[in-house]
Automatic annotation (TrEMBL):
Keyword presence, Glycoprotein: no
Protein name as it appears in the record: SDR family oxidoreductase
Entry keyword set: NADP, Oxidoreductase
Occurrences of domain Ketoreductase (ranges): 12-196
Stated family: Belongs to the short-chain dehydrogenases/reductases (SDR) family.
Top-level taxon of the source organism: Bacteria
Amino acid sequence: MALKELFDLSGRTALITGGSRGLGLQIAEALGEYGAAVVLTARKQHELDEARAHLEALGVTAHVYANDLGQFDTIDPLIERIHAEVGPIDILVNNAGATWGAPTAEHPFDAWTKVMNVNVNGMFLLTQAVLKRCMLPAGKGRIVNVASVAGLQGNDPRMSPTLAYNTSKGAVVNFTRALAAEMADKGITVNAICPGYFPTKMTKGTLAYGEQQILEHTPMHRLGTDEDLKGVALLLASDASAYMTGQNIAVDGGSSSV
């Protein structure tokens, strides 16, 4: 097989949660450029419509479905609908996420629950539905979880404490390892990307007051760009990573290495 064929996603369908903007949309651009039909889910229909128009202008086939992962009873019907209208899902990118910043002693429990419901519980239920409906019957699949360097370490004391987010992303890291081991003999790989700080809507508040501290702690002394996740996302979604599973790859300018 020619090397370029290992990265070819033609004929495959990729579901990307939280795909209407930020890192999810960047990943959709990458997978779509290499031939995948992309299916985006997010809570806001107008943002999904804008993302679809953006992708179609790039020549990418895109489908959009408004959905809130925190509403658990909508998840099975969503996967059934995508399966019926678009086809089986070959690639799942669990990207949707929520965060909350507060000192632990003052952290509202409802905020803790919201973060866990989206980042862990909703991800589990969606993955389970895709496995049952699409990947296990096909005997193949690629699952790419978007964790975070926050799941690999604690916070710099100068930054806002985000215990719920760090805990949830730590769960994603080990979810990736455990599911990878379970699926290894079933033709399904499970890996995770652990981004550092990228300018997105979610990180806007943190960067507003903490960007200098972040840059000081990052050996490359810069934030992530719109292009920095695309290569690893394509690798993990394609046949080029056929012998990789259970890995959590930091894309963080070296911040987790110091």
